[in-house]
Specification:
The chain has about 375 residues and is mainly beta. It has 3 helices and 28 strands. The strands form 7 sheets. It has a 5-stranded mixed beta sheet with strand order 1-23-22-21-20, with no helix packed on it. Strands 11, 12, 13, 14 and 15 form a 5-stranded antiparallel beta sheet that branches. It has a 4-stranded antiparallel beta sheet with strand order 2-28-25-24, with no helix packed on it. About 45% of the residues are buried.
């Protein structure tokens, strides 16, 4: 099914196409204590893998028409990547990210992916200055907390899992975090769910098994959402997981979303089942109308963004709502959606419009952070 939504407006959060460190990607969006939009993303990059990457934020007081100067949220010596942002109440906000090892970054440089030799040498020189102590302190999945509505951020701390949009807030004010475990991984349980009462200390609730039908796929980049529960019943949780078939181009591979549900606050989970989505990774939002919306990137032509909607708390989905289909490459997506005051939806994503030829072959050009304001069909 290919359906259109009503697009109200579109715009740009961050675009620096003529800068060496102009690549920006993997955004998330929330509203702060004043109701203003806050977008977090990984910026200051050369390209997809880059040791200069840091987590930046921009705020908008007019629903995306204008944006503040960038605020540095997390900047470690490593490759700070996917940026999650969450408002927790009382001026408190949480940022999440993860990074790559020095060895991985050097391997990418040795492959010549940065194009011009000067850029490759610049990356190698930087990585060689990152010490063992620096890597030991920061390598992994990180969160940082702000107590002043996102203007200043504490030193980041390590957490046990990672996901592009970070943890989500539960009705009681605590955090639920579904992600890929950091460190050694059990191939049979690729996703884990953790809980935190304060944003600093996390304890494991469960491991999520693979779906037998898609056991050969990679599992990563989940997102989790609390659904309404009745009376004193335990929280009902909805979990979506990216699956990705290895070894094939995006146009040919399985690239979709599985779903699992917990009826007991995250202690036990159903076996993940296919949703049929034509894209990933997922972001889940419960709209004020009661609809649950999952937005995701489409990396098969036509490249772009799609959403699916459930009116029965995930038991069934209406798929194929096209938000945007003008992408020129598969280097795009990671949408994140929030609801505006009038019920409209505001989705941020990243896109890359061109390829640049290097001696080692094609590599992606500069990516930007974009937004789209839209409305569901009646």
């Amino acid at each position: 099914m290919n359906q259109s939504v009503k697009v109200i407006a579109q715009g740009t959060v961050m675009a620096q196409p003529n800068r060496v460190l102009g690549y920006a990607a993997w955004p998330s969006v929330t509203k702060d204590a004043e109701g203003d939009l806050v977008v977090a993303f990984s910026g200051n990059r050369i390209m997809h893998v880059c040791p200069y990457g840091k987590v930046l934020l921009r705020k908008s007081r007019d629903e995306g028409r204008t944006w503040s100067a960038p605020i540095i949220g997390i900047d470690t010596p490593l490759d700070d990547r996917d940026a999650g942002i969450l408002y927790m109440g009382n001026q408190k906000m949480l940022l999440s990210t993860f990074n790559n090892s020095r060895a991985f970054q050097k391997k990418e440089a040795d492959r010549g992916v940065y194009g011009p030799r000067e850029r490759t040498e610049m990356v190698k020189a930087y990585v060689s200055n990152v010490t063992d102590e620096m890597e030991q302190q920061y390598l992994g999945s990180l969160i940082s907390v702000s107590s002043d509505n996102g203007f200043s951020w504490q030193e980041p701390i390590k957490v046990p899992v990672s996901a592009p949009h970070g943890p989500n807030l539960l009705a009681d004010g605590s955090l639920i975090y579904a992600g890929t475990p950091v460190g050694p991984k059990d191939p049979n349980f690729p996703i884990a769910v953790y809980h935190s009462k304060d944003g600093y200390h996390f304890h494991k609730l469960a491991d999520i098994p693979k779906c037998p039908e898609f056991s050969f796929c990679n599992y990563a980049e989940p997102h989790i959402l609390e659904l309404p529960s009745k009376g004193d019943a335990a929280s009902k949780l909805l979990l979506h997981i990216r699956i990705d078939e290895p070894g094939k181009p995006y146009e040919e591979r399985i690239f979709s979303i599985l779903q699992s549900i917990s009826e007991d606050g995250g202690k036990t989970w159903s076996i993940p089942a296919p949703t049929g989505a034509e894209g990933a990774p997922p972001h889940l939002l419960r709209h004020s109308s009661g609809a649950v919306i999952c937005s995701y990137g489409r990396r098969k032509p036509p490249y772009g963004l799609e959403a699916m909607v459930s009116w029965d708390e995930g038991r069934s989905w209406t798929k194929g709502y096209t938000l945007w289909d003008k992408g020129e490459t598969a280097d795009l997506g990671y949408p994140c959606t929030t609801e505006l005051a009038n019920g409209d939806l505001f989705t941020v994503y990243y896109m890359n419009r061109k390829k640049v030829q290097s001696e080692a072959g094609n590599y992606w050009g500069t990516a930007s952070i974009e937004w789209i304001r839209w409305r569901m069909p009646q």
